[in-house]
Design a protein that fits this description.
The chain is α/β, with parallel strands linked by helices. About 55% of the residues lie in helices and about 15% in strands. The longest helix has 17 residues, at about 130-145.
Length: about 220
Amino acid sequence: MADKIRIGIIDEMKITLEGIASLLGPTEDIDIVVKADTYDHLPETLQATSVHVLIIVVHSFNRLFADLVTRVSTGFPRVKVLVISVSNDEEAVLRTIKAGAKGFLARDTSRTELIEAIYTLRSGHEYFSNSITVLLLNKYIHKLKTEDDRSDIRSLSSREIEIMKLWGNSLTNKEIADKLFLSVRTVETHKNHIMQKLNLRTSVDLVKFAIRNNIIEL
């Protein structure tokens, strides 16, 4: 059997700390090795205990939290930080990602998505929930209105921009199709073309694109 994924969980609220631990407990290839309700002594804990994925539940963003993520990411590069946020303050989300978090989940995350995020991070990839994609799409749409001279923007058709706006408003492919009198397959094709024209493949690429192009000011 392959080595288990070693998980650390930090949450200042003990009830949600225990709740996350209970959700992950039955998963055979996951081993919870750290549970803490304070950030105190975190570097010492990570030094003494091998952790693959560190889940941090954040109830309020501030510079100290971003600094903590940076210290963990730079001081313990083998530890992948997965943030679960009770709020989706857009500036804080991007600051946290830029600080080094490899995964970000919103408060409506299901157990299935949480486990998927853990597997993804352990495999060496990044994972961001759909709400982060929507947030960045909306920011990009705002840029469309003010930077019409950019080549990547000019490459998008009016239909693609229309679909981006609906996508950014959290409409599903089926809802977009119904609204625009298109087939679901056509909507999927348009979305793929949008990502290709922006030279993006996944929502992770979209996050990086947003940071690189200052779609959200940090």
